[in-house]
Specification:
Length: about 60
């Protein structure tokens, strides 16, 4: 798995890509995305790999 890094100014919108290496060899997976809600607002999750789960986030994961 690899995760991009980025920087931004207040009010900017950024995209952070999370890539799954060797995805054809994975039968199941789970991970938690943690971030400081004082500084960031999650606005969307898009996925072609985790499409079965992308619209079912854990309620406590969102501000």
């Amino acid at each position: 798995m690899s995760v991009d890094s980025s920087s931004a100014q207040a009010g900017d919108t950024i995209t952070i890509d999370i890539r799954v290496d060797h995805s054809l060899q994975i039968a199941a997976a789970a991970f938690t995305l943690s971030y400081n809600t004082d500084y960031l607002t999650l606005t969307a999750i898009e996925s072609s790999f985790f499409d079965a789960f992308v619209n079912k986030p854990c309620p406590e994961s969102f501000p």
